[in-house]
Amino acid sequence: MPGLLQGKISLVTGAASGIGRATSLVMAREGATVVVSDINADGAEETLSDIKAMGGDGTVILADVSRPNDVAALIAQTVAAYGKLDCAYNNAGIEGFMAGRLHEYPEDQWDRLIDVNVKGVWLCLKHEIPQMIQQGGGAIVNTASAAGLVGSRRLSAYVASKHAVVGLTKAAALEYAQDGIRINAVCPGIIDTPMMSRLIGGREADYEATIPIRQPIGRLGTPEEIAESVTWLCSPAASLVTGLAMAVDGGFTAQ
Ligand code: NAI
Predict the structure, then answer these.
(1) Residues with Cβ < 8 Å from 214, sequence gap 6 or more?
(2) pTM metric for this prediction
(3) Pocket of ligand 1, candidates 37, 161, 193, 225: which has the most ligand atoms within 8 Å of its Cβ, to mutate?
(4) Of 62, 154, 159, 218, which is most buried with the most CB atoms under 10 A?
(5) Which of the listed residues 12, 13, 19 should we mutate to test ligand 1's pocket, taking the one with most ligand atoms within 8 A of CB?
């Protein structure tokens, strides 16, 4: 049986860790050649070596998604190496400052968070889309969050950034629907990754107790559960799906 992404060239940003790494592996399992991109060179190389260990193929191209020249070079090098870009998963993101309420948020950290989480996704779309128009289509998934669908205390900048990702996704989906480009967002709930460990660091016991209230399924999600959804959204099996902000959150936003 051919895989869901057999023969496809797939780019993943934030691929050195967590959800991006898991998605790189699932995409490779489904037959894609994966361009593993991140700012963390060692982590990216580890992801690539995991892909190769399972018989897959790919390459590492380092890029900071908030830097226009990096993103332009990332897409140009991908196309130079493989001749096309079928799927793009714009996943790189940061959690930002967590210690206070909105009026205590430092301006420099607001700027950095918006630069990575919003401008980074916009820059990726800006450079991926012309290639996809030229080749006659493609599929893009952006990582938003349950925090892109509902509010959350002490996370105002992050919540604003992820609502922006949902908005960008919907607007872009409408603009490029007739070019054969599908653009969707995935909205993960509370997922067991290094980012989540940083967020709950030192409060593990309290946090565990609140999980069944926050996430009705009663446990953390795994990066692999997000990876399966993203891979499906990128695949021809999702051919009628565009402009969707898909919650993969164990019921978090159903409440
Ligand atoms: P993670 O921290 O484990 O991985 C994020 C990766 O992004 C890291 O490898 C990091 O080096 C990379 N990165 C950070 N800034 C970058 C930049 N400027 N350019 C390129 N790469 C950069 O985090 P995780 O949990 O895997 O998060 C992935 C995405 O999922 C993020 O967008 C995050 O906001 C989102 N998300 C995570 C949730 C969770 O519960 N873990 C829930 C909802 C959304």
Answers:
(1) 189, 190, 252
(2) 0.98
(3) 193
(4) 159
(5) 19
